[in-house]
């Protein structure tokens, strides 16, 4: 026995010696180095953040550690301790420069830095931590006490407040708002499942970032701030919270929100009122009220019921949220009153002309929701009964139905719609796969256009049938057949004008028949329009969706253009046009032919416009333009070769280059005597040459421009009820960047020849160095006038030529009254011995 005890004693002593030796070794420099390396290895295995001890000193009664990471963060822990009781007093100083590095440890991504400065005190079984935490540009004071290593008390305060925008950035969120939140908490947490105490979160002004919310979500908010107050009281095993958020557009209130700490269940009611906000271009003008009821038994069984009170019967949404993640949403709206819905809509649109009675019901289930990546299943139906629908007293619908069914998921969807509105039988089916249409079928029979048009605030009569069957959608292409047919459609002139922006004079009636077929995005179509006042066909229509290219042959005719004329100018008589039109490589093309007045052709291709008019009967053109009383004879030829670039009139004119030429022979003008006007100008200098020479600018329609029948304008009653024959007219312009330079612009009657020189800037319709001259046989201007201003408001400038005209008139009088005056006035007049030619063109002086 003694031997055993001796061996035992020796063994114990040996173990103690070993332990003491190991202890002494651990506290030595080599032992510290071993511990440092081992801790570093284990830490970096758990999280490869580049953890490294820059200082490691563990002694018998003190310690001092300094740690850094890849971002050169600094953490320092130093203090004294008792080796036997392990009581300690330590200081902690830490600056983590980038928390994003610690995402794997924290479990979420955080941006920015955090610093901690504080004291750690352990005495016996009590541990106290007192620290100032600086993060997200805010300072938070935290006091935490533990007993037997179990939490005892928690105290948090933010004297200056927490900056919302910095907190959002810290949490890796966009800066949706700015402001400050004050937070205070004083709680006994010795029993984490039954804490006691309370907390307060408040803000006098949280201002949403309205620009960011509108850009990101289309949400339009007023610029007012939101006041926030949250008070919580912990008692037993739950926390009861009072919530209040107020602003000019938002009110959120709850007095009984209760969260269980044991099973993390939540129960209570939240009242929400929203007004004066919008989404994209839709603005909420009337308050929107909603009640939210939270109900759950544990963290795995969270539920919420939303009751939206827009009309008498609420719209209900029941949301199942296990672990606070939405799993399913069930929507239910039963017998919503259509009259109330129209009254609600009248706050946003003019609905005073509509009267509706009926109801609509909605049921839908969004199930198996997964937010990342977004996925769900969907099944629902909408059923509506329209007892009556009237617009401005006209009955549009009575005892009609509109039903829709929808099913699918986030990528694949099927939709079916059927209705008997507008006296029709309407059936539509659509199927989407991976958010791409696969099949679309529409069949409309007996659509009452009067009722449909009235609903859209238009005026039309007739019945329409239409069908479309589209399949195999791929790369913006598809296969399909479509057709449209009506025995007779009548479009009111007001509707035509509203749709076209033109000025139709009468209603337009016609029968309509069209059909088409597409295969892999390419196909053909045709359309026939047959009416009393208009006949039109579109044939050989080619469709190429893949290359965005289209073309068609067309023909249009009318026995009386006045009945379908959409222009402001008066037109009358028969008209027929034919040709082709197309669009390819983002450029339009056009070929147009008319043989009613001669040979007239237009060709537009590759931004080049060619116009050719040969042997045009000016008498017919005058009659067609309601100028038959003014122009009764003549033949014209027209040629234009222009480059056309741009998508709007301003750009096209700016880049307009090329040439335009018009010439006429034996143009008969009635109600104005050009020779008499010219003679009158020579005698009195009282008539503007621009009035006489407007034919140079406007060609055969010059009389309409000068209002030749208006004797009061010219002040020449003696010369307006007669006839002029313009034997030769030439109007040739060269265009460069929208400026028309007169190259050869003149006309001649039996006694008079006039010409124009200069340019007209079509970009601003202004005259540039423009003059009109009354010529003599030597191509010199006997009289000339400069024209300034614009085409709409021309201004005649008094020139030296005009002054000489008056002197010449005085001289002729002196010659008649006193023979000797000729010698006296000659030096004063300074009569020219030679002239400078005004005109160098092709129009010859009358013989």
Q: Can you tag this structure with a few keywords?
A:
elongated; 847 residues; 4 domains; single chain; alpha+beta
Can you tell me about this structure?
This protein starts with a helix and ends in an 18-residue tail after the last helix. The strands form two sheets. It has a 43-stranded antiparallel beta sheet that branches. Strands 12-17-18 form a three-stranded antiparallel beta sheet. 18% of the residues lie in helices and 52% in strands. Strand 31 (508-519) and strand 32 form a beta hairpin. The model is unreliable at 10-17, 695-720 and 800-833 (pLDDT under 50). The chain folds into four domains: 14-124, no CATH class; 140-275, no CATH class; 413-594, no CATH class; 595-829, no CATH class. It is built from 17 helices and 46 strands. The chain is of the alpha+beta class and 847 residues long. The longest helix is centred in the first third of the chain and has 25 residues, at 2-26. 15% of the residues are buried.
């Amino acid at each position: 026995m003694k031997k055993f005890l001796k061996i035992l004693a020796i063994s114990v002593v040996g173990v103690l010696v070993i332990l003491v030796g190991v202890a002494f070794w651990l506290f030595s420099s080599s032992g510290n180095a071993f511990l440092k390396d081992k801790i570093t290895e284990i830490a970096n295995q758990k999280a490869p953040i580049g953890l490294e001890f820059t200082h490691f000193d563990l002694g018998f009664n003190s310690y001092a550690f300094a740690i850094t990471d890849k971002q050169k963060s600094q953490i320092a822990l130093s203090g004294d301790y008792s080796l036997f009781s392990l009581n300690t007093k330590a200081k902690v100083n830490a600056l983590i420069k980038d928390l994003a590095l610690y995402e794997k440890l924290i479990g979420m991504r955080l941006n920015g830095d955090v610093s901690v400065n504080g004291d750690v005190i352990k005495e016996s079984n009590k541990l106290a931590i007192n620290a100032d935490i600086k993060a997200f540009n805010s300072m938070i004071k935290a006091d935490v006490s533990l007993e037997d290593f179990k939490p005892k008390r928690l105290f948090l305060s933010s004297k200056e407040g927490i900056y919302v925008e910095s907190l959002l950035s810290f949490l890796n969120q966009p800066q949706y708002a700015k402001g400050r939140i004050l937070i205070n908490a004083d709680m006994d947490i010795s029993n984490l499942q039954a804490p006691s105490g309370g907390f307060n979160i408040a803000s006098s002004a949280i201002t949403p970032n309205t620009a960011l919310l509108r850009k990101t979500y289309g949400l339009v908010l007023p610029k007012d701030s939101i006041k926030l107050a949250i008070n919580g009281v912990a008692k037993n095993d739950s926390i009861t919270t009072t919530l209040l958020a107020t602003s000019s557009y938002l009110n959120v209130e709850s007095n009984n929100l209760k969260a269980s700490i044991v099973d993390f269940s939540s129960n209570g009611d939240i009242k929400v009122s929203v007004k004066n906000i919008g989404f994209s271009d839709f603005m909420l003008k009337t308050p929107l009220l909603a009640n939210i009821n939270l109900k759950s038994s544990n963290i795995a069984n969270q539920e919420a019921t939303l009751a939206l009170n827009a009309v008498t019967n609420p719209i209900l949404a029941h949301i199942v949220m296990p672990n606070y993640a939405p799993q399913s949403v069930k929507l239910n709206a039963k017998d919503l009153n259509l009259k109330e819905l129209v009254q609600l809509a009248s706050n946003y649109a003019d609905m005073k002309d509509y009267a509706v009675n009926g109801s609509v019901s909605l049921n839908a289930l969004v199930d198996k929701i997964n937010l990342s990546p977004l996925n769900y299943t969907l099944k629902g139906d909408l059923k509506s009964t329209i007892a009556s629908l009237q617009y401005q007293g006209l009955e549009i619908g009575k005892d009609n139905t509109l039903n829709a069914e929808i099913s699918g998921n986030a990528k694949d969807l099927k939709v079916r719609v059927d209705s008997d509105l507008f006296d029709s039988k309407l059936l539509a089916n659509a199927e989407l796969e991976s958010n791409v249409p696969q099949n679309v079928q529409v069949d409309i029979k007996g659509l009452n256009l009067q009722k449909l048009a009235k609903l859209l605030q238009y005026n039309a009569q007739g019945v329409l049938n239409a069908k479309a069957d589209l399949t195999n959608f791929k790369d913006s292409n598809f296969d399909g057949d479509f057709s449209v047919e009506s025995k007779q459609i009548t479009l009111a002139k007001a509707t035509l004008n509203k749709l076209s922006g033109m000025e139709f004079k009468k209603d337009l009636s016609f029968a309509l028949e069209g059909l088409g077929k597409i295969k892999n995005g390419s196909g053909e179509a045709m359309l026939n329009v047959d009416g009393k006042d208009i006949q039109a066909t579109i044939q050989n229509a080619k469709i190429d969706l893949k290359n965005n290219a289209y073309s068609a042959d067309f023909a249009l005719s009318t026995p009386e253009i006045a009945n379908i004329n959409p222009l402001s100018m008066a037109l009358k008589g028969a008209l027929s046009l034919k040709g082709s039109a197309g669009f390819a490589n983002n450029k339009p093309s056009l070929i147009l032919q008319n043989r009613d007045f001669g040979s007239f052709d237009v060709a537009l291709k590759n931004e080049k416009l060619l116009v050719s008019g040969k042997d045009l009967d000016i008498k017919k053109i005058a009659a067609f333009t309601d100028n038959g009383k003014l122009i009764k004879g003549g033949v014209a030829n027209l040629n234009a070769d222009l480059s056309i670039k741009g998508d709007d009139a301003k750009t096209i004119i700016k880049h307009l280059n090329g040439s335009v030429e018009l010439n006429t022979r034996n143009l008969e003008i009635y109600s104005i005597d050009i020779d008499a006007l010219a003679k009158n100008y020579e005698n009195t200098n009282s008539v503007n040459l621009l009035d006489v020479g407007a034919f140079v600018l406007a060609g055969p329609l010059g009389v309409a421009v000068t209002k030749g029948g208006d004797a009061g304008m010219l002040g020449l009653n003696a010369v307006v009820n007669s006839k002029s024959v313009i034997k030769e007219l030439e109007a040739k312009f060269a265009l460069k960047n929208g400026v028309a330079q007169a190259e050869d612009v003149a006309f001649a009657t039996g006694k008079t020849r006039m010409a124009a020189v200069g340019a007209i800037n079509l970009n601003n319709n202004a005259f540039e160095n423009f003059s009109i001259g009354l010529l003599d046989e030597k191509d010199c201007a006997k009289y000339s006038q400069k024209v300034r201003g614009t085409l709409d408001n021309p201004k005649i400038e008094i020139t030296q030529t005009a002054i000489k005209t008056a002197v010449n008139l005085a001289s002729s009088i002196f010659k008649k009254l006193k023979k000797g005056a000729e010698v006296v006035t000659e030096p004063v007049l300074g009569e020219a011995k030679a002239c400078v030619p005004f005109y160098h063109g092709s129009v010859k002086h009358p013989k």
